[in-house]
Every structure is written in C-alpha cells, then in structure tokens.
Amino acid sequence: xxxxxxxxxxxxxxxxxxxxxxxxxxxxxxxxxxxxxxxxxxxxxxxxxxxxxxxxxxxxxxxxxxxxxxxxxxxxxxxxxxxxxxxxxxxxxxxxxxxxxxxxxxxxxx
Length: 110
What we know:
single chain; mainly alpha; extended
C-alpha cells in the first residue's frame, strides 16, 4: 500500500499525473485503507481485494508496518511540496514523450 502511494507521487514528479490526479489517487487509496480490518492498529499482510477482508492465515508484520510508516512520511513530504510546485510539472511533456518508444534499431516504427 505504501509503495502504491509513492508510485503515484513518483508518477506526478515525472510528469505522468497532474497534482489533481495525484490527490485523487492518494485520497481513494487512503479511503480504501481506512476500511480494512486491522489488529491493534496494524494492517494485516493479506486482503481479499474485492471484499477488503483480511485473509487467513492472519498475519501482521512489524517490518511491513514500519515500512508503511516510512512510505507515508515520504508521501507527506511530497504532498507538502505541491503548493509550491508549478501547476504543470516541468517533466509533464517529457513523461508523454517517454511513452513513445520511437523507431526500432532498423528505423521501423514501433
């Protein structure tokens, strides 16, 4: 979950997502996380993605919980930078350009 949140932040930083798209994705992810069952505040390791119910065997990992805290702290830092960043990130055009593989080595369109 933490890496999914950071992947969205990275997509924004690389110009693939606007600030609004980033905020929408982060909001939806956190809203989904809030609906998940937990044990003493910790997320279980496995969930059914259609029902959001924890799967057996129920397992909580202190390492994964710590990683999630670190991911959320990095996400927070990135989100706090949004108001000072340009509406259209500098890499926005580059993000779309990187999606076009261009011609192959023989000069044929990909």
